[in-house]
Protein 1
Amino acid sequence: MSRISRPARSFAFAYVVRATFGTLISAMFRTRVVGIENVPASGGVVLAGNHISYADPTLLWIRSPRPVHFMAKAELWHSAVFGWFLDQVWAFPVKRGESDRAALTRAAAYLKAGEPIGVFPEGTRNRDGGAEAQGGAAFLALRSGVPVVPVGIAGTDRISPAGTKGFRFPKVVISFGAPIDPASIPAGGKKERVEAMTIEIMRRIGEQLDIAREVAES
């Protein structure tokens, strides 16, 4: 039986995890952060990044300058123990393959409260670049009037390459780009604005990914 997600009453447990295991994991992958000053110091914000590995949300969660609530597939709450852990580290469930109004409402509430949300517009891991971007990040930003910070993550695809066994410890780089103001999106219908902002988000994520790759190879 699935666990019902219940938000943690405080971030105390998550702060301990970030300071201990998070520091260790970050060091193992020699994680470097670029453009951290682009993440607003306060207020709601959507961090939108590329997604090529299961390690992406973990490392972004660890190295973000502010606590981030991540959407995670609802199936992960099928385990009562793991579901409890996800609740404690600020994650919340989303039903993939459908419009999950409960998840969007919860995300909007966090943004309204001035807390960051982490979203991967491609919706799932995308190793070959063929996945179609979803409009969730743009929808939340436009609905809540908060900026989107594009994030490029490079190196995580080499942690467990397709066709190999075991894990490797490559250098990982996370690059934060300048925020995208939803007010900069041309006026129009809601659907048109979501589509336009999604295109802009993905373009800017691509730019940050190029930067992250260059730094990773230097």
Protein 2
Amino acid sequence: MRTVFNILAAVLCIGALFAPAMRAQQQGQDQGQQQGQDQTQQQTPSPQEPTQPTAPIPAYHSPLAGAADNGEDTDNEVTPDTSALTGVQNLSLGTSATRSFWQPHIDVFTTINSNQAENAGGSTSWGESTSVAGGVDLHHRSGNSDLTFSYLGGDSFSNSSSVSNGVVQGLNFAERLSFRRSVLSFFDQLSYLPQSSFGFNGLGAVPLPGSGSTGVGSPFTLGQSILTGQGQSLGNSLATEVDALLTARSSLTFAGGYSLLHYFDNDSLNYGTVNVRAGYNYQMDRKNIIGLAYTFSEFNYSNFDQSIVSHTAQVSYGRRVTGRLAFQIGAGPQISFLHMPITNGTGSSSGGGTGSTSGGPTTLVSWALNANVQYALRRNAFALAYIHGVGEGSGVLAGSVTDQVNGSFTRKMSRTFSSGLTGGYSRNSGLAITASTPSNQTYDYWYGGGNFSYPIGRTLGLTLSYQLQYQTSNASFCIGPKCGTSVFSNMISLGVGWHQRPLSF
């Protein structure tokens, strides 16, 4: 893993040496591009108007600010988002009408943590770590293909002998192939992290590829929303989508995907999830869309005798104003069948196999809701998302009822760097529904913070960031050496980043 990272760093350094010459060669090229056709032409475009996924987002760069900014250093034109309302991805504000490009970046951070070992019960132990990360964002258009690719790799080195070093690998891939009356799309999000992906801040303020409300939506993501402590885990979400045009206003969507989460350093629950969806989309006018969707989901745990099958029907509404607003909401009934349902929580997020089982299959009737809104002005942007439904339990619970909300506010400081505030909350309740006096374990997790970037020239910048994480439960849990009913930590990071401007090819 370290060899791969060293090779990547060498490639990025070579790119930095040749970047000025490449920019000089490209100054005479035409940067304008025809804006997408009228939104009334339905969500599935013709070959002359390929579907536009969310543009790759450099570190510190808000996807919302990037789409809405009209500054002198950006392209004013924005191509409308034409993705299906009932598809795998969330609706977006659109993408900047730019040529194919790639953009490397390198970041170095020093972080002090008030509870580096993540001891529960109010115990604190200040520690320091140094993080080095490098990555590349790429957007390539050719013929009927539209591809985006983002990668981030790095290491975090701790000065404490009781805390192991952390390895971070993240990848986000999306490919859309547009035909006359259909669009075929592929999506993949991979992460190899030392902590839960929800609220992850292990490398200063460097975001993971595909993070944010403009990426793959629920239930096609892992749903890892419980703080799990130190320990490497591998997560991957793969999905395929087909959109078939029926008329100029209506289309059908068929999607399928598989997600997995595997823990390497503890006995938390490893699971795999299968998702299949069929949907209908109708474009009422240029801005408003409605849809109907049915989703089948199945969760299976490799180291625990538990499986969950859920059927969800949702009615959806969406509204898009290119470069300004993207809003969607879907709600409906959810019926879940639990094989060998658990009767109590695990009691420890590092001991996922301790829950007991009782009885046969049980039916749980509930409701599911997904909502997402993005709003952007010239240099400011706002995003908020909410999810409710039956989930996998993040490897801590063998299934849970999950409520999750997260939001952000960003202000663009330059073409490459931005500052902002982020925060989120999740509540996971174990599916203990068969016992006469069930003792469901519940986890409440909050995170919040902000970062401020000070650009130094066009490609360098200093960033100061702060984040807090707080988790509590109605029963004792252990995510570090000491157990308790709550864990709290503060993280302060100071770093420098080199983010090359987009290089056309």
Protein 3
Amino acid sequence: MYNDEIAPGDQLQHHNARKTQAFYYSFLEFGADALSSEFLWFTLSATRSDDVSEINGLSFGTFAKAQMMSFEPWSSTGFQCGSIIIWAKVKLFVADESAIKFTLDVKGASGNLPCFKCRNCLSKKTFAKTRPNSDLLSITDIDYEAFLKHDDNSLKANAQFLAEQKSVLKKIQFEKLQTSLGLNYNPDGIILSGLDFMPISGTCYDPQHVLLVNGVFNSEVGQLIVVLKSMKITISDMASFFQSFNWPFQSKSGNNLFDHRSNSSITDKEKNTQC
């Protein structure tokens, strides 16, 4: 199952009432090549984001649980497909960091544990307050082997502990506990739902976002530009380099990526925001 928010129209407007939460599904048995085709991903639901936000409580986590629950009959009675019956269950949830955060009711960057899959990886600010020589690490650490991983049971245990403390702790204490565990308490969410879904082994950060969309590629290119600038390589040099390639017929953006924009094509609003 895959989730993403679709935002038709102006991406910069203050409130886009057309924003839509879309869920899709496919079958792992299709294999990687087939799953790279949009024609083998099927729409599960498309709901206005404004409508989702009106659900009581932690709305998105509750809404995402309902999407997963819609597959439950497939795991017990299956569904008819031509002359055969297919059984299926939600095995893997794929999304970007933001969607995973709201789907599983984890705090992400607003908690002490930015990555819900790690048990000892702290935000930079939180790590600065820890005692030295502990097994806690900063999110900036690059020693991958030193990270202690959550498993499905340990994450569920933390969520269950949070539920048990809800009626014991005062509001401020409970909020601090949520921040420490990197979880938001949602009794109607996926982790506490009893669904046959494994939140750690069954959740995957979308590779397209990790590598391309605001991901590793953006960071690497940003650092490369700084190096090129120090080598006296100009924008015109980069433009010439990009124009030396044969770009796909329907994607010519590479040829004019570094072109100067004429003033006639720039709106007054854009002129005011240019550096």
